[in-house]
Amino acid sequence: MRDLVEIGMGRTARRSYDLDDIDIVPSRRTRSSKVVSTGWQIDAYRFDLPLVTHPTDAVVSPDTAVSIGKLGGLGVLNAEGLWARHADAESVLARVVAAAKDGAGVDDVVQLLQELHSASIRPDLLTEAIRTVRDSGVTVAARVSPQHAAELTPHLLSAGVELLVVQGTIVSAEHVTKDKSEDDPLNLKDFIADLDVPVIAGGVSDYRTAMHLMRTGAAGVIVGHGYTPGVTSTDRVLGIGVPMATAVIDAAAARRDYLDETGGRYVHVLADGGISCSGDIAKAIACGADAVMLGAPLAAATEAPGKGLYWTAAAAHPSLPRSRVAPVPSRDADLKTLLHGPSSDAEGVVNLFGALRRALAKTGYSDLKEFQRVGLTVRN
User: Fold this and answer.
1) Tell me: the pLDDT tens digits for 100-140?
2) Which one-letter DSSP state was computed for residue 199?
3) Strand 45-47 relative to strand 40-42: parallel, antiparallel, unpaired?
4) What DSSP state is assigned to residue 149?
5) Distances 335 to 74, 101, 251, 281 between C-alpha atoms, Å
6) 202-228 b/e with 16+ CB inside 10 Å = b?
7) pTM score, whole prediction
8) Domains within the chain, CATH numbers bracketed
9) What is the C-alpha separation between 231 and 233, in angstroms, rounded?
């Protein structure tokens, strides 16, 4: 039964929980971390780590997408980012980094990002970036917004994209408009049906929207808005927030009901937001996620294009930015060390997936699907 709280006369609200509010309960057995698996598979693509990168220029360049792929995860390139707009993307990023580190105000740095993103998307640059990833042999993924999906997807497919991510702050299966000047809204069901590649769509925050997206034919649903404390400001700008533990559990319930409804079609749930350490990764999967989308935890890598800064694609929105450009704590570690260790850090921010393996082992589960059944408690 849902836990409802009266917040005023005649108005109730549902009590919800974030990842910090819950803990994982050990089972009656343990096992060696050497015999557990952190692998997962979406459609025909299998990965050693349940890791999908948040598609931001601060973390994912063509080169880092390749590195992450070779380390067992999936790097998602932002097809509407700087790599698709500027031939000298590295020097353009250097301008952003220099502005932020030279003491420019937060608003000034965001304004610079908006200016840089006002340049048109160039299909030739986008194709070049995608082919760099494809030629390495790793799985190729790119993100488009719902507004530009129909326009950009043909270029992405011809360049070799194998997984398409349609991601916005909030993505629904139905968009209503009376504005004749607005382009026809994306019909996600028809759009997915016409493609030969699997589509991951989101974000969502509730059972109903997750179910609607699953019914469009999406292979995966993103839960959350990429919330990162001190970086994203969707809650302040729009008043919309996502308590991640509840949101992931609700989406997992939609996945279970959709599985029954279709007689066996499984849609993957990806948790995007509120994840800052390895314990959060374990909790997100314990709540029912198949994989996590990481941004800020990877921005600390020495190879990250943001050079110690992090922002999301929403920072460059031309009229209503919902992300700051903010520094992340220095880890002095490369991507391999951040993901696989070894670590001398005791805060769960290095060796992220070595810690996940240990969490599975300490609770007696052999793989991620089993671990989704682990017991949970709520803190007082």
Assistant:
1) 988 888 899 999 999 999 999 999 999 999 999 999 999 99
2) E
3) antiparallel
4) H
5) 13, 22, 30, 17
6) bbbbbbebbbbbbbbbbbbbbbbbbbb
7) 0.94
8) 18-378 (3.20.20.70)
9) 7
